[in-house]
């Protein structure tokens, strides 16, 4: 049903605002998982960055209307009742995406509304009852594997694989792992096959074509945002070139920001990236960057003024 699909829409909306229940457990991902996006609301809630985003969203009437629809439909409060959100897929593309939502919601009400659809059907998968229904010409599959956990996808195989992963019937996903994960990660994203992603998107970016896999995590520690990423290049030589290019970009930003007429936010960004470090081991390049939250808020503010520097 269209209204039930609003729950998925709300999950997508909250990607820009809220993040999932606990650090990602890669053992819960299917073995053939090619990409994953995990957001940790518990880690985000109460942070300065979340407060900033929340203030912006509260002034967005369209967003608030969607939130109200979902709250009425699922009898939940957003973001308070949203504990988690994970998206992943065995291939790239909307049809292959699987959404796992951890939230306090009225499961009985949601299932009753789905059962009212003329296209409603149900099929057992082990101990689980997977339901399906039509929404805007698309068949959706959903299941509540545990109270407060909802899995939805256009792919029946994706839902089945997610359930098998929960029951530990598959090996751990092959998505890359971080060299050094940040403390209390808020956002986690990984792609096990960047080349396939580019092919399906028709993207010919020459830099991305030199990358086979990538993983990124962002966390907040005290008053700093901590970004950690690993890129796996097509070769050790390419990894060295990527590292050199990254260092060159830092220098170029400093050069561009040196003018008295340079954009104030360019000056802020140029100083901020100087704390980023790049390290290479074999075909892997590691990025480690800690930046004050106040600096990020300055960059997000169009009226930001450049920081003063000592002569």
Q: So what's the oligomer here?
A: single chain
Structural class: alpha+beta
Q: Strand order across the biggest sheet? A: 4-5-6-7-3-2-1-8-9-10-12-11
The helix content is: 25-40%
Unreliable stretches, pLDDT < 50, 5 or more residues? 1-21
Shape: globular
Short description:
By secondary structure, this protein is of the alpha+beta class. It has helices at 2-14, 41-44, 48-57, 61-74, 107-115, 156-166, 194-201, 236-256, 264-272, 293-300; strands at 35-40, 82-89, 97-103, 121-125, 128-135, 138-146, 149-153, 185-191, 211-221, 224-233, 277-281, 284-292.
What topology does this entry show?
Blueprint: H1 2-14, E1 35-40, H2 41-44, H3 48-57, H4 61-74, E2 82-89, E3 97-103, H5 107-115, E4 121-125, E5 128-135, E6 138-146, E7 149-153, H6 156-166, E8 185-191, H7 194-201, E9 211-221, E10 224-233, H8 236-256, H9 264-272, E11 277-281, E12 284-292, H10 293-300
Antiparallel strand pairs: 1-2, 1-8, 2-3, 3-7, 4-5, 5-6, 6-7, 8-9, 9-10, 10-12, 11-12
Helix pairs in contact: 1-4, 8-9
